[in-house]
Amino acid sequence: MILSHTDFDYISSEIKKYKISIDDIRIKSCNYSDVHRYLIAGDIGVINYKKSYSTIGRSPTKMGEYWACGLPVLCEVNTGDVDYFIKKYDNSGYLIDKDSIDSYNMALTEILSHTKNKNELREFAMDCFDLLKGVAIYKIVYDKVLKGKK
Known about the structure:
By secondary structure, this protein is mainly α. The chain contains 7 helices and 5 strands. It folds into 2 domains: about 1-30, no CATH class; about 35-150, no CATH class. α3 runs antiparallel to α6 (about 120-130). It is globular.
């Protein structure tokens, strides 16, 4: 299942390039508020960005969404802080080299061989992406900055 606001015809043409039957794929556009309903039926969340200089500065919030739904992530190396988080939390995701089909195969083999506890992935999401925790951290930083300005 592919959840995307990208044009259906474009996604279909990309799938056909790899000789994958469109009958094996479901492409769905949905509201952001409904995404979690589809994700909980999944096995893995894919984080995929076109490689650019800004990729190294990303922190994909979708990783938190995937973990909150109990899904490990698959992401290309050097995508923001994803490498750090995947290394910090065992079996939370897999880093791939997009230019290596072997990298994909190894990641998929790992995914299928580990039965990750969905609750543990949810805990990872709360540890890293909890909104209230983030607000509290920012408040500490802003308080320190503002104290120095007085």
